[in-house]
Amino acid sequence: MKPYHYQRARDIPGAVAALAEQPNGKYLAGGTNLVDLMKLEIMTPDMLVDVRRLTSDRIEETEDGGVRIGAAVTNSDLAADRTIRSCYPVLSQALVSGASGQLRNLATTGGNLLQRTRCVYFYDTTTPCNKREPGSGCSAIDGHNKDHAILGASERCVATHPSDMAVAMTALEAFVNVHGPDGERRIPIEELHRPPGDEPERDTTLEHGELITAVDLPPLAFASNSKYRKVRERASYAFALVSVAAALDVEDGTVRDVRLALGGVAHKPWRATKAEEALRGEQANEANFRAAADIELEDAEPLRDNAFKVPLARNIITRALLELSEER
Amino acid sequence: MNEEEIMLRVDCEEHRIIVDTRTTLLDALRERLGNTSPKKGCDHGQCGACTVLLDGRRANSCLALAVAHDGAEIVTAEALAENGDLHPMQRSFIEHDGYQCGYCTPGQIVSAVGMLDEVEAGWPSHVTGDVSAEKISLSDAEIRERMSGNLCRCGAYANIVPAIREVADERARR
Ligand SMILES: Cc1cc2nc3c(=O)[nH]c(=O)nc-3n(C[C@H](O)[C@H](O)[C@H](O)COP(=O)(O)OP(=O)(O)OC[C@H]3O[C@@H](n4cnc5c(N)ncnc54)[C@H](O)[C@@H]3O)c2cc1C
Ligand code: SF4
Ligand code: FES
Ligand code: FES
């Protein structure tokens, strides 16, 4: 590991100011992704500003009836929270489907959102990778790419975003609160992560020094009828091949409203707006669920090894929606 | 130099040490404090051999930086025994032959102890049918899922699950 300076700040503005001065500095939270990448010298910050004990570790109800999740809330505490479990079960399920019990005790909400891709070439420093070393090329496009993206990729990068939590938050239309050198802003989660385009080295739209302080979940009554489904290569402790976060509002057999987001298919959590539009006002049945999934997946551009993700995504979307319509 | 003085309470004993900022909790325990109970399996969060109780919760000590946990209370498998009496989880692993080479065992045992506290607190898992349920009923499937962060290269799982099961059942009877 490269040597670095470790710093604690007195308060949030202090942390932001400290990092703003260090173009090659990074915030540290649980460390479960950053320390791993630093050991491999894939990330080589020369300063760490520890924010784990700085940002809030509380889950609070907001005035509008939603929930505010402090950036330092651990993945375990968030998954175990009573309000989350009954009002937003999709989020609790997404969290417990990720990593392991001991990792979730360290991992934080802010760090989970900003974890980096698990593309094998990103991790292998002997191979070209545009995300790790801009301009060096993408080893995955013509390499082993079963884990890679089928939607929204570019010629420069076909990596996927690994977070389960972020997929659930995308379906819930969460807002990410950040505090940066130029003040505070509130970003719809869909605008946090970005498609790879010409700059795959940039995972998100955050500017250097912007600190995530909290995530807001707006109220959504039908989110109590929601679920997360994840398919992976073993039963536990593995990243998603494909996952889906779904919430469904059905009345008299008709879809009043629906939320769908996919994981493991793109450089960002993929909100399936086309499928959602196709379903509103339609009969809640298997044929319609399947047809809506197909509409979303029409744009899919599978690579050599990952064509299986298209039927897999279709099947788990259909299955999740069917279960949500039957369980009512 | 990038060094910091920190304090760690390890197995009830206070230690003040100066560490390189890069030192993980695992290396601080093993290399600086001579506590080799937590093991280094992968050093990347993938195996659970390094599991300790960190401020009361199970955690992988290989991805936690020592400087970031200044003042922390750490319990390793070594300290689970009290006055020479083995902890029920340790005894159960012996009775059920829950290991072969033993390398993953301290991590398994600490993890299992932390896991039972999580169950008692009502935390759901990936195999919990209804995450909003008040109480968790600890089936074997629940044990397996909750222990999935601890790999055993000897494949002693078939005995590890009953070892944990017995302690869980004992606890439930109390
Ligand atoms: C073996 C293994 C298996 C895993 N499996 C899964 C899985 O199945 N599903 C899944 O979703 N995840 C999985 N993970 C990833 C895990 O969820 C993340 O490592 C974790 O959520 C990161 O949180 P952290 O607090 O430790 O972040 P850190 O490692 O501390 O930080 C991660 C990044 O976020 C930045 N950062 C942290 N906090 C803030 C903040 N408040 N504001 C701005 N920037 C910030 C850091 O600078 C860093 O770049 C796995 C990890 C491991 C090691
Ligand atoms: S897919 Fe992206 S992360 Fe993977 S090798 Fe290509 S550029 Fe790198
Ligand atoms: S050594 Fe820490 S998880 Fe393997
Ligand atoms: S007993 Fe040998 S690794 Fe588990």
UniProtKB/TrEMBL annotation, chain B:
Give residue ranges for domain 2Fe-2S ferredoxin-type: 4-80
What InterPro entries does this protein's entry cite?
A: 2Fe-2S-bd, 2Fe-2S-bd_dom_sf, 2Fe-2S_ferredoxin-like_sf, 2Fe-2S_ferredoxin-type, 2Fe2S_fd_BS, Aldehyde_Oxdr_Iron-Sulfur, Beta-grasp_dom_sf
The GO molecular function terms of this record are: 2 iron, 2 sulfur cluster binding; metal ion binding; oxidoreductase activity, acting on the aldehyde or oxo group of donors
Pfam families (UniProt xref): Fer2, Fer2_2
Pathway membership, UniProt: Alkaloid degradation; nicotine degradation
> What keywords appear on the UniProt entry?
2Fe-2S, Iron, Iron-sulfur, Metal-binding, Oxidoreductase
Per its record, how is this protein called by name? Periplasmic aromatic aldehyde oxidoreductase, iron-sulfur subunit YagT
Protein source organism? uncultured Rubrobacteraceae bacterium
